[in-house]
Amino acid sequence: MEEGEDLKRETLVNSNVKITLEDIHKEVEYWKTWIVCYVLGSNPPQTAIEGYFNRIWGGLEIDKVAQVHRGVFLVTFHTLESRTKVVEDRVQMFDRKSVIVKPWQPEIEMKKEIMENIPVWIRLPGLNVKYWGKQALEKIAGLVGNPLKAYKATTMKERMTFARVLVEVPINKVFPDTIMFDNEHGHIVEQDVKFEWKPILCTKYKYFGHELKECRKYIREETNNTALAREEEAKNGAENTSNGEHKENSTVMNKDATGVEKY
Fold first, then answer.
1. Element (H or E) spanning 191, and its range?
2. Domain total for the chain?
3. How far apart are CA 93 and CA 116, in angstroms?
4. How far apart are CA 185 and CA 167, in angstroms?
5. Which of 16, 122, 156, 210 has a CA between 20 and 30 Å from the CA of residue 5?
6. In the structure, what pLDDT confidence band is assigned to residue 211 with cuts at 50, 70 and 90?
7. Residue 155 lies in a domain
8. From CA 140, how far away is CA 155, in angstroms rounded?
């Protein structure tokens, strides 16, 4: 059996235990190079997410990747500078879904949080290339959400079928299929918008990635409730049948010798 460091119980003055800052100082210093990560609307296995982290952050000397809850991971780096760079870069995507990156802090909760705003990639198909510059693209994408960055191929003018922009949008917003803006001649231009992923929220359990009608937990609970209701209905039906037979037997016993029922 692999063993860690030896522990011993200190003499207790009373039944209460008081943890001091000195008790946790060493651990707090150790965890400063860690970040908490999870993918909105997805729970990838550790092997998949570890390969993804090594691909995007491999040059920053990842030390360890550990899973703490389903879909929630801790990543540590050899230096605090590397961790700081990852946190400052902020926006990452896994399978077109937002990767939430947070620095570890002593009071942090290791679970997925309810987000109010999340980044998503949008495509603006057929957008005239004269609007692909920074100022025009910020205004046009700003009609959808808060523009964060343009895709490299859009900035370099390499893929001309659509402009691709990362925008931050509220999760409770209606995601438009089209937007309209006034061009430089005062004419209204209608522009199509394609979301690469929409942050659909389960209204009951607050999970991203599916609607309530597609929620496996909700479907399982409804199936169980239906089964219980049928069992209760069958039980009540059996009791009613039994009561009816008992009443019929009582009626027969109340008849007199002439065959006339007594009331």
1. strand 188-192
2. 3
3. 18
4. 27
5. 16
6. low
7. yes
8. 15
Contact 89, 48 (CB under 8 A): no
Indicate if the pLDDT at residue 140 is higher than 80.
yes
Residue at 122 is within a domain = yes
| Stated pTM of the model | 0.59
- Enter the tokens of residue 55: 């691909």
The boundaries of the domain holding residue 209 are: 204-232
- Per-residue pLDDT tens for 75-101? 999 999 999 999 888 678 888 888 889
Considering the domain architecture, whether residues 138 and 98 belong to the same structural domain is answered as: no
Q: Where are the beta strands (DSSP E) in 33-185?
A: 34-39, 62-69, 72-77, 92-94, 97-103, 117-125, 146-150, 162-170, 178-182
Retrieve residue 91's tokens.
């926006």
**Which of 137, 114, 118, 138 has the alpha carbon at shortest distance from 127?**
137
- Answer positive or negative: Cα dihedral of 196, 202, 203, 205: negative
Q: Which of 195, 141, 140, 138 is nearest to 171 (CA)?
A: 195
Q: What are φ and ψ of residue 194, in 5° steps? A: -120, 120
Helix (H) or strand (E) holding 189, with range, is: strand 188-192
Please tell me whether residues 164 and 95 are part of one structural domain: no
* Type of residue found at 88: E
Say if residue 191 is in the same domain as residue 145: yes
Tell me if 218 sits within 8 A of 202, measured CB to CB: yes
Which tokens in the block code for residue 180? 């309209």
Looking at 195, 216, 241, the residue that finishes a domain is: 195
Query: Does 180 map to a domain?
Result: yes
